[in-house]
Design brief:
Blueprint: H1 3-10, H2 14-29, E1 35-43, E2 52-62, E3 65-72, E4 76-81, E5 84-89, E6 95-98, H3 103-117, H4 120-126, E7 127-133, E8 138-144, H5 147-150, E9 153-161, E10 164-172, E11 178-182, H6 183-188, H7 195-203
Antiparallel strand pairs: 1-2, 1-11, 2-3, 3-4, 4-5, 5-6, 7-8, 8-9, 9-10, 10-11
């Protein structure tokens, strides 16, 4: 961007500042493969007595592969690569299917891949992006442009501190919010079961209580 355009953007107020923050966040979140990070996923539903808590690890062994390894309360590995997802559980035959059948997984791979590779252009092609907060405490909302994904997912909110992505909140068109704690937030969630405490960790609202 030319210097004159940058100067004009800086003078345009909050919207321009949000764009600048978004560029900064996307640059800081870039992590070349191979990489891995722990996660704690919380799914709440009126049908459950307590939120379902799933713990494991996301891994990106190479630029084209995303692996979701669940370690508790069951063991399951989902490998997303080349337009397909393979789900494997001990004692069962692995299942492989096209991502076109599950746009949520396709969106997960696209967003994670673009974030971790630092490909801001690809992310902006797939989502409308709105960033708020400061470099110390920010949130980035991704609204899908693809009709198939938009029919399933209303939006995805990334929350972080500095260069650390700490939480992803996925709001489906139908159903309940899905919250995934990552990195430091996932480690801090060890032993925490209360839904409000886990939400506080996600939102960065101070120390969570067990």
């Amino acid at each position: 961007m030319p210097l004159c355009a940058t100067a004009q953007a800086d003078a345009d107020g909050p919207a321009a500042q949000a764009t600048t923050l978004g560029d900064w966040v996307l640059q800081k979140l870039a992590r070349p493969a191979p990489m891995q990070t722990p996660f704690v996923e919380v799914r709440d539903s009126p049908m459950l007595k307590a939120p379902l808590r799933i713990a494991g690890e996301y891994a990106r062994p190479d630029a084209d592969t995303l692996v979701r390894q669940v370690r508790a309360p069951y063991v399951e590995t989902t490998t997303i690569r080349a337009g397909e997802a393979t789900i494997a559980r001990a004692g069962r035959t692995p299942r492989t299917f096209s991502l076109s059948r599950v746009p949520e997984l396709a969106g997960l791979q696209a967003s994670f891949g673009a974030l971790l590779s630092g490909d801001a252009g690809a992310l902006r092609e797939a989502y409308r992006i709105d960033t708020n907060g400061t470099r110390q405490h920010w949130s980035m909302t991704l609204v899908p442009k693809d009709a198939a994904l938009a029919g399933k997912v209303r939006d995805i909110v990334l929350r972080g501190r500095g260069a650390e992505l700490r939480c992803i909140e996925t709001r489906p068109v139908k159903g309940d919010l899905q919250r995934t704690l990552l990195a430091g937030a996932a480690r801090a969630a060890d032993g925490i079961t209360a839904a409000d405490a886990l939400a506080a960790l996600c939102h960065g609202d101070g120390a969570a209580t067990r």
